[in-house]
Amino acid sequence: MDARFPQIADHLLLIERELRVQGWWDETPPSAEQLASQEPFSVDTLDFSQWLQWIFLPRMKQILEQDLPLPNASGILAMAEMVYANDAHKSRGIRVLLHQFDELITQAG
């Protein structure tokens, strides 16, 4: 098991909590077609917060639960900066968490 797994697991919970606090958590999942997007961050079918909730968090959970290799890099903060450019104050918490996640991923395992 990668030594970062416990810290990443905790961090994923913080990301989920922030999505809920900001009201960016959906109770109803997107359609199978929306989830099947091949575009980066599913930009053609999902809002960024939906991508975080329905694609990113489940994939990361699967990686941790199945002891799979972590990605070598993460560029989630760059996408968040673009998405939340007009809402910098409200999005500060999620951007900080995503920055920290990016840093965790780039650390040697």
UniProtKB/TrEMBL annotation:
In Swiss-Prot or TrEMBL terms, this protein is called YqcC family protein
Matching entries from Pfam families are given as: DUF446
Q: Tell me the Gene Ontology biological-process terms attached to this UniProt entry.
A: single-species biofilm formation
Q: Which residues form the YqcC-like domain?
A: 7-104
